[in-house]
Design the sequence.
């Protein structure tokens, strides 16, 4: 029952979204995220003192200010409206976090995302969609993206929730979707896998769509769990001499980890990329 209600809520939010997206695709108006939703977004992304949180279209700065004040993170808010940037900077001084929370007047499409560990978005669907290739190209595997109200094109979130939030301008309590994505490692391409106790190597030719990975048709019967950042898990079925459950980590042109064979034997595996693929 709970699941049905949740599905209906997401469907209703999606319908509302379709109407709004037709109105204005490129310039999100200023609408602050309700405080309860800010808290939940930062919790879902597990923000901590080691994080660098960037809010694209930062409004009055509440997301970055909360990340700095409550979670000890560093942050940057990027905003096109100079008045809002002035207000956010003043709030950072008032709240004693000006050393960790910065605000800049900037077009969010120009912002460099290379060092960002948590990206927060409350924009419009088309803006999110436009940002997707840059997020995937610049943010590192395992970094997180949180959005409220809207998804990011056809990139399925890793986690989604409905959260009730009180709107600042109207005082109405509204349900909103909150979405979390974990930036996946890029593992598309041709790999050669070797493991303890097996002669030769296994050829894995992988295609990737966001966090979803599968072998190119006809290469092997391996099945992959969705990537969680750089964490890789897959199964190779018998009768392959490489049959087993594999878990490991991808880093650049290498993947390595541990496997459990069908009989229970365990060992180490390592794969090397021979050719890059697209995703
Ligand atoms: C819906 S508000 C979200 C504010 C804040 N992130 C929050 O969640 O409370 C979107 C903000 O994005 C800003 N914005 C829209 N287009 C922008 C652009 N191209 N570059 C920078 N900021 C932009 C708007 O001025 C607005 O303040």
Sequence:
């Amino acid at each position: 029952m709970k699941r049905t209600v949740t599905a209906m809520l997401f469907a209703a939010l999606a319908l509302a979204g379709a109407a709004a997206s037709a109105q204005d695709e490129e310039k999100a108006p200023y609408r602050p995220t309700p405080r309860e939703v800010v808290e939940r977004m930062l919790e879902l992304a597990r923000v901590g003192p080691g994080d660098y949180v960037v809010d694209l279209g930062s409004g009055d700065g509440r997301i970055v200010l909360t990340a700095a004040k409550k979670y000890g993170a560093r942050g940057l808010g990027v905003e096109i409206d100079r008045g809002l940037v002035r207000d956010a900077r003043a709030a950072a001084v008032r709240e004693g976090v000006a050393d960790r929370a910065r605000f800049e007047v900037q077009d969010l499409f120009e912002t460099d995302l290379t060092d960002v560990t948590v990206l927060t978005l409350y924009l419009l669907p088309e803006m999110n969609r436009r940002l997707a290739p840059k997020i995937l190209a610049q943010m590192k595997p395992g970094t997180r993206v949180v959005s409220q109200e809207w998804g990011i094109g056809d990139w399925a979130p890793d986690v989604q929730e409905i959260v009730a939030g009180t709107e600042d301008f109207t005082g109405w309590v509204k349900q909103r979707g909150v979405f979390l994505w974990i930036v996946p490692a890029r593992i598309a391409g041709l790999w050669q896998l070797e493991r303890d106790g097996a002669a030769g190597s296994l050829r894995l030719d992988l295609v990737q769509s966001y966090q979803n990975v599968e072998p190119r048709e006809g290469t092997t019967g391996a099945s992959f769990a969705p990537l969680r950042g750089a964490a890789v898990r897959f199964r190779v079925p018998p009768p392959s001499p490489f049959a087993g459950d594999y878990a490991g980590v991808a880093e650049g042109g290498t993947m390595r980890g541990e496997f459990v064979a069908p009989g229970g034997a365990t060992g180490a595996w390592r794969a090397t990329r021979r050719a890059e693929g697209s995703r």
Notes: The chain has two domains: 2-182, 189-276. The helical segments are 2-23, 35-44, 62-71, 82-94, 125-138. Residues 1-24 have pLDDT under 50 and may be disordered.
